[in-house]
Specification:
Blueprint (H helix, E strand, L loop, with lengths): L1 H17 L15 H7 L3 H10 L1 H4 L14 H15 L10 H16 L6 H6 L7 H24 L1
Helix pairs in contact: 6-8
Length: 157
């Protein structure tokens, strides 16, 4: 019993020390999404959906919840953001070539249509990120319009 108590105290001390360290935060400038918004021109309802469901993990601007201050949760969230940005980064839109932009919009449409995005783990704590069928249809329609525009441009190249 004494050894168990010592282990628990040691773990508590380690946990407390861990709270003073954390990953870098993804707190860039919201202006980094302007190129994406200007180029893809989403209607206001789709723009709101993107802001509420995509920006946190797929841009350089994350609105962190209060529990992000707790280690190890902050590392888990940082990993989600890093992985999300690897797949699709709205803030890096200007660096994508036309073919890649078309592909990324295609992936966005697929993921939303198949209800793989936003992630279920994200919607647990972000109720406004639970998309209705109407919202999904709006995002898909907008995405397909953008894709068609990019495909037409690719044909002329």
């Amino acid at each position: 019993m004494k050894i168990l108590k010592k282990i628990l105290v040691a773990l508590l001390i380690v946990f407390i020390i861990m709270q003073f360290f954390g990953p870098d935060r993804n707190e860039g400038d919201i202006a980094t999404v302007d190129a994406f918004i200007a180029e893809t021109n989403p209607p206001s309802d789709v723009k709101t959906i993107l802001e509420n469901t995509c920006y946190d993990c797929h841009s350089d601007v994350t609105a962190y919840p209060w529990y992000n201050k707790i280690t190890p949760v902050n590392y888990w969230l940082a990993d989600h953001v890093e992985e999300g940005k690897e797949h699709f980064n709205i803030s890096a839109w200007d660096s994508y070539n036309l073919k890649r932009k078309e592909h990324k919009i295609h992936e966005l449409v697929e993921e939303v249509e198949e209800k793989k995005m936003p992630l279920e783990s994200y919607t647990y704590t972000h109720g406004d990120a639970n998309l209705t069928d109407e919202q999904i249809a709006a995002v898909v329609a907008w995405g397909n319009e953008v894709r068609a525009k990019y495909q037409a441009q690719l044909k002329t190249e």
